[in-house]
Amino acid sequence: MVQRLLMGPGGAAGAVRRSVGTCVPVTAQGSPQARFRRAIDARSVLLAELSAREMGSVQLEDALALVLLYAAVDDAKFERAAGKWLSRLTLERGLSLAEIQLAAGALQAVGDQPEAAVTALRLLASPRRATAPAIVGVAEALGLLRP
Predict the structure, then answer these.
(1) pLDDT greater at residue 132 or residue 122
(2) Which of 23, 47, 88, 135 is most buried, by the most CB atoms less than 10 A from its CB?
(3) How far apart are CA 35 and CA 50, in angstroms?
(4) Would you say residue 61 lies in a domain?
(5) How far apart are the first and last CA of the chain?
(6) Amino acid 81: pLDDT
């Protein structure tokens, strides 16, 4: 808010303060990204979807968070969202066939082995690609590698 001081007839002693506001909406909820993170933490599918739409462009890691939320609350949208996310992951990160297989297996294992599955998915989605041994270790933990 911009403050403007108007001098009255009594000089500085009779000064009147008048506020001139700016048209910048500020909400208590914060940015769409902040609302999205809170909705994910609160496990609210509706609020997460609304915030994601409001964000416009959803980062790959945020899209994964929404897919994982669908899995956590056993939402019927999980299968379709997982497939779309896998396609996006493949295109954006240029995965090999083995990495695509790992990602698909990890998405299927989210319910059974959530920690290992989420670790694998985050490694694959990271813009700073994980090293092959790290990915192989997670794949072994998920039982996706055959001896």
Answers:
(1) 122
(2) 135
(3) 9
(4) no
(5) 67
(6) 97
Residues 6+ apart with CB under 8 A from 82: 67, 70, 71, 107
Structure confidence by residue, pLDDT tens digits, 101-116 = 889 999 999 988 888 8
DSSP per position, 96-114: -HHHHHHHHHHHHHTTTSH
In a domain, 89, yes or no: yes
- 30-85 pLDDT, tens digit each: 899 999 999 999 999 999 999 999 998 999 999 999 999 999 999 999 999 999 99
Give the number of domains in the chain.
Answer: 1
The answer as to whether 58 is a domain residue is no
Helices marked H in 1-147: 32-41, 45-55, 60-72, 78-93, 97-109, 114-125, 132-142
